[in-house]
Amino acid sequence: MFQGSSALTLDAKGRMSIPARYRDVLQTEEQGRLTLTRHPDGCLILYPRSEWEARRAKIAALPASARALQRLLLGSAQDVDMDSAGRILVAPELRSAAGLDRDVMLLGLGANFEVWDRTQWDVRCADDVKNLDPAILEQISF
Q: Class of the 2-137 domain?
């Protein structure tokens, strides 16, 4: 289970370092093999490859009415491998689609991650907090 957020920087080649707290488990359990794709919210989703393969099959099996979602997720998916320094390359088309320039946020969301432009994340986070569903909050004890 991945959790927490990390402020990261893309280098000039578009590489992003995976934080050490995730790197070891991703190397051990996934041999550093990951998949990046677009998310409908405007960020990128980073999956361990085994998790992506299970989801990919479900996405591919969706009915024809879900073609737009299939195009977004499957058509944008790129397999990436961590290099010896624990970095992954975020392809230019994915960086462009998510508005990633230099400063990014990596969010651990259980079985996968989201990758956000830092400025977009700040705006989205503030909006999300304002729009929390009270019915959902009642189901959680803080």
A: alpha beta
